[in-house]
Amino acid sequence: MEADKLNQSPRTDKAGLMTGAGALISAVLASACCWLPLLLIAFGASGGALSARFEAMRPFLLPVTFIFLGLAFYFTYRKPKVARLPVAGGSCCASPDAGKAAPCCSSERAGGFTVRNLNKIILWTVAVFALGFAFFPSYVGFFLGRSGAASAHVDADSTEWAITIKGMTCEGCATHIESELRKIPGVVAAKVRYKQNEAVVEAGPAVSESDLRKAVEKAGYRVPSIRKLPRWKPNNEEVQT
Questions:
Q1: Could you tell me which residues come within 8 angstroms of residue 193 by beta carbon, excluding any fewer than 6 positions away?
Q2: 13-65 pLDDT tens trace
Q3: Is-contact 136 34, C-beta < 8 A?
């Protein structure tokens, strides 16, 4: 019985490390819908379908992340139980050697740097990274330096298209879609506005609605509608003026 209690602290430390690692893994997977498109762009690949799958799992993975983090803090900061043996003049901790008693010296009270101190440092480091990944979709736009304004460049013979896009979760998705749209021969400019769920594309006459739709769907997103934007033309009175 005493041996089981003595081993409880190492087991608790191991549980804290394992749950902390679980929190980090689930946080990385929960944000994969956002960082994965950026990684694929860097390697010249496209995996929007895979990104969409991670997005579908995000509502499940985020709670799992916080549950794992809570358990990790609980196991790491919980005070270990120590078995005590009654002796004359006080009490002593049970020794791993059968039938012997040793002076009670809890690792919490011992001076110097202990394994438990190291586990706390590891836990806080893991917590910072886990939260950073979990909320990555919220601040990635700041690092990408994206804005909601579309390109002002308009050629006389080009057409402006407005594409409604569903399935975007962050600015990383918008960057991924822009990359696919700009690969289309004849596209002059493309700007995806994540908050408006819309892309504005300026393209030459050779680019069709089908080309634009296929590019967005190849990135792994849905296109409910595509429409041509009206081009401003001066009337006769403005020309004469």
A1: 148, 150, 174, 199, 200
A2: 788 889 999 999 998 888 887 787 777 766 766 666 667 677 778 888 889 99
A3: yes
